[in-house]
Every structure is written in C-alpha cells, then in structure tokens.
Design brief:
By secondary structure, the protein is α+β, with helices and mostly antiparallel strands. Helix content is 30%, strand content 39%. The chain has 4 helices and 7 strands; from the N terminus they run αααβββββββα. It has helices spanning 2-8, 11-21, 23-33, 115-121; strands spanning 38-47, 53-61, 64-69, 75-81, 85-90, 97-102, 108-111. It has a 7-stranded antiparallel β-sheet with strand order 4-3-2-1-7-6-5. A hairpin with a 5-residue loop joins strand 1 (38-47) and strand 2. The termini are far apart.
C-alpha cells in the first residue's frame, strides 16, 4: 500500500514529497524562477506586523525562500532570494520563533517547531 510508505517516511521527506508532487507549483518554481531543487517544504506560522498569526507553507529551494499561502496553499505570496537574506535570528526561548532579515526589506517573523532545520538550510 502506497500510504504505508508515506507514514514510514519522516515528516520532512513527506512535506518535500508533497511539494514535489504538486506539478503546477513545481513547474512555476522551475520555469519562472529557475529553481532546481526543493531543500525544505513544511508548515510554518508567519507573524505579521500587526502580530497576527497566519498559517503558511515555507518552501526553500536552491535559490529562494518562498512564503506560500492561499486557499489551496500553493500561491506564492512572497519570494525571497537567498542572496538577499542577511541574517537569521533564533529565539532563545522554546517558542519556535525565528526572524529572517532581508536586505532592503522588512524582517519576516516565523514560528515553526522545525526552526533549527529551517535555519540550518538558510
């Protein structure tokens, strides 16, 4: 049963696999932006400037960090080129918060239980 294989794989592999299987989304990454490989895909919460928490999907490729949302969770809301990320801050508390500083833009605040994995890739 193909479901059994999905359950046995780790969460990160399952999330990356879901992003890779969504052919329309993957096609937009490769054709529009030239991304070649998905390094991370998973759920995160974005905290906006009014401190409102918004559910998002984060996708990190070899070229960019994508803030993905929308009704189906496949609409690219923001593309941040990896070369423009100047710094990543980890919260010292167990609140799962990390901040991505972007050159000439405002900082982005995210919350994810996988913050260490995400920041290691960035």
């Amino acid at each position: 049963d193909h479901r059994q294989g999905i359950v046995q794989r780790g969460r990160s592999e399952r999330d990356k696999g879901a992003a890779k299987r969504n052919s329309a989304f993957k096609k937009s990454l490769t054709q529009l932006h030239g991304d070649k490989k998905i390094l991370f895909a998973g759920k995160a919460k974005k905290i906006n400037k009014k401190y409102k928490v918004q559910q998002r999907n984060l996708v990190i490729t070899d070229k960019a960090l994508y803030n993905v949302g929308g009704l189906k969770g496949t609409k690219v809301l923001r593309r941040i080129d990896l070369t423009t990320i100047t710094r990543v801050h980890l919260s010292p508390f167990s609140d799962h918060i990390f901040v991505v500083d972007v050159q000439n833009q405002r900082s982005y605040v995210f919350m994810s239980e996988r913050k260490v994995e995400i920041t290691a890739i960035l």
